[in-house]
Specification:
By secondary structure, the protein is of the alpha/beta class. Helix content is 32%, strand content 23%.
């Protein structure tokens, strides 16, 4: 079976994955004259930095997702196929997908990463990840459903199990969802569930000795202080070893009873068959040269979370798995493909660190831009502006801003709906 795309005389660039990097690459090639084929298992592009706000019922899923086909309307020679990519056939220069074979002249892998449970199948079965919009919806349903169960539970111990939320991972995602749930505890639970007021406990469990390890120690301390002020129980140096759906067990012997465990402890790159063994590095990331070409392959590139560039003295362990890295690599790969088609030398990728930010709730955030490290209201306002600008679509920007303003005034948004299909129930 073939994917029904006529090749014509144009150079074909196939992009696997329409995340932030894949979309940026596709848009960067719009004036190249190439035929561009985008393949993704979903028919929408999502904005990962705000997934935690969907999970905490602060935003609707449609506010941070945008239909891929609409993004490419008006772009000549652009095609989209919603499909699962199964393997690469380098000899034939083709990928095998769930909708058939797609040939390429250049292939760019931007499939991103998925949650890493580090081989613990029981944790993977019982904990809830927070990597995609679908994960966020499942998490929102789960927490709200357990609040409903706690409302009618007569056994005090069982009720507390429904009210305890354990977040595993002290990176940006863990800090942000902890702050968002702390605000839910303060503003939502007392109004929606008055019988449960002050019974909700939020634990942020981190195996390291500080939160936000990728940021400066000052920013880590600021984030921890703000979370503690909001009532979050921060546990550093606690490594989770098991979770059976009822009890979270730590390496140090400590336990926490909880029916709500959110796993944001790590990620691993999405994989695909047909890659040479020497190209697969730590956590499944694909080893690439400075031009993002996959090791041992011809005309195959990898960008974003899926890539690990070797040979950059400034980043000997590889670049951080951040949105800015994916966006900058996408632009460079687009330019390099055009340069190669015109017989010019490709240029190595040089990462420009534009800064790092993490929000901890209303009027609280930490930011690092160059030598400047600051927190509080200023960092929070900057975080709002940066993320609002990055959201696709004028309508989405408007509704996100409206939600943020409304939440800032009274936190009475009507998004706390438990929406599940009969099959999911």
């Amino acid at each position: 079976m073939r994917a029904n795309i006529r090749r014509g005389e144009r150079t074909r660039v196939v992009i696997v994955g329409c995340g932030l990097g894949g979309l940026k690459l596709a848009v960067s090639l719009r004036h190249s004259g190439f035929q561009v084929v985008v393949v993704d298992k979903n028919n929408y592009n999502q904005f990962p930095p705000l997934i935690y706000q969907v999970a905490s019922a602060g935003l609707e899923p449609s506010n941070i997702a945008f239909p891929i086909r609409r993004l490419f309307q008006g772009y000549p020679h652009y095609y989209f196929r919603m499909a699962e990519v199964k393997s690469i056939d380098e000899n034939e220069k083709a990928i095998q997908t769930s909708v058939g074979t797609i040939h390429y002249d250049y292939l760019v892998l931007g499939m991103g990463a998925t949650t890493n449970f580090f081989g613990n199948e029981q944790i993977a079965h019982n904990a809830i990840p927070m990597k995609t919009v679908s994960d966020a919806m499942a998490l929102r349903n789960h927490i709200l459903h357990n609040l409903e169960l706690a409302e009618t539970e007569t056994d005090a111990d069982k009720r507390q199990k429904f009210m305890n939320v354990v977040i595993v991972g002290g990176g940006p995602s863990g800090v942000e969802i902890a702050g968002a749930l702390a605000e839910m505890k303060k503003y939502v639970v007392p109004r929606d569930y008055p019988d449960l007021a002050d019974r909700m406990h939020i634990y942020l469990v981190n195996s390291g000795d500080r939160l936000l390890k990728a940021m400066d120690k000052k920013s880590s301390a600021t984030a921890e202080k703000e979370l503690v002020r909001k009532g979050v129980h921060v546990r550093k140096g606690w490594r989770v070893t098991d979770y059976d759906g009822r009890v979270v067990r730590m390496k140090n012997g400590e336990t926490i009873e909880s029916a709500n465990v959110i796993w944001v402890s790590g990620v691993k790159a999405n994989t695909i068959a047909g890659l040479p063994d020497e190209a697969v590095g730590h956590a499944g990331r694909l080893l690439c040269d400075r031009m993002n070409r996959v090791k041992g392959m011809t005309d195959v590139f990898a960008i974003g979370d899926q890539s690990l560039i070797e040979g950059d003295a400034a980043w000997p362990q590889g670049h951080p798995q951040l949105a800015q890295v994916a966006l900058q690599q996408a632009e460079n790969v687009a330019r390099n493909i055009v340069r190669k088609e015109h017989g010019q030398d490709m240029r190595p990728f040089v990462y420009k660190n534009l800064g790092t930010m993490a929000t901890i709730g209303r009027k609280a955030a930490v930011a690092e831009i160059g030598r400047w490290k600051f927190g509080g209201l200023t960092a929070w306002l900057l975080w709002l502006v940066v993320h609002l600008r990055s959201i696709l679509g004028v309508k989405n920007k408007f509704f996100v801003l409206l939600n943020w303003l409304w939440n800032y005034v009274n936190y009475k948004q009507s998004l706390r709906l438990i929406l599940r299909s009969n099959r999911e129930k």
